[in-house]
Amino acid sequence: MNHVPDDALAALDAFGDGHLRGDPPPVRERLRSDLRLRIDRVDEGTARCRFETEHTRTPPTLRDRGSFLTTYVDGVDDRLRAWGIEPPDAYEYVETVGGWHRYAGTLRLP
Q1: Coil, helix or strand for 45?
Q2: Rounded to an integer, what distance in angstroms lies between the CA atom of residue 44 and that of residue 9?
Q3: Spatial CB neighbours of 53, under 8 Å, sequence gap ≥ 6
Q4: What is the C-alpha to C-alpha distance for residues 44 and 33, in angstroms, rounded to an integer?
Q5: Is the dihedral of CA 22, 4, 52, 103 positive or negative?
Q6: What is the per-residue pLDDT across 87-101, written as a single tens digit (0 to 9) for each?
Q7: For residue 107, which phi and psi values (nearest 5 degrees)?
Q8: Cα(71)–Cα(68) distance, rounded to whole angstroms?
Q9: How far is CA 16 from the centre of its chain?
Q10: ∠37-41-45 over CA atoms, to 5°?
Q11: pLDDT tens digits for 4-51?
């Protein structure tokens, strides 16, 4: 079952297609009320993918938050792989800003 909203899937497709054309647009999507997705290209071969979440705890990796949240992360990663973009093994905790916990990883672009 795919929990990723259609608008987020469309943004991921625009990023993948834009990368193939040389100018991927950044991704700024809300996956659910307490989960946001941000993707920005760093250079021709990499992009930074960040998930932002509101929660009371900050485990070391995003998938450590539980299986329901993992379905969102897996849905995003699967869509990226469909474009030949390789996600990281884990999105690691980076910082908390304004009550939002940030988990990030580097995407390898084709």
Answers
A1: coil
A2: 22
A3: 34, 35, 36, 62, 65, 69, 100, 101, 103
A4: 32
A5: negative
A6: 999 999 999 999 999
A7: -95, 135
A8: 5
A9: 13
A10: 125
A11: 999 999 999 999 999 999 999 999 999 999 999 999 999 989 999 999
Given the structure tokens 């625009």, which residue do they identify? 14
* Beta strand extents in the chain (DSSP E only): 27-32, 35-43, 46-53, 92-97, 100-108
- Give the closest residue to 32 by CA, choosing from 5, 66, 10: 5
Quote the CA–CA distance of 15 and 23 in Å, as a whole number: 8
11-28 burial, b at 16+ Cβ within 10 Å, e below that, comes to bbeebbebbeeeebeebe
C-alpha distances in Å from residue 29, one per residue of 39, 45, 52, 104, 107: 9, 22, 10, 15, 17
**Pair 55, 65: CB distance under 8 Å:** yes
DSSP secondary structure, 79-102, as one string: HHHHTT-B--S--EEEEEETTEEE
Q: What is the pTM of this model?
A: 0.94
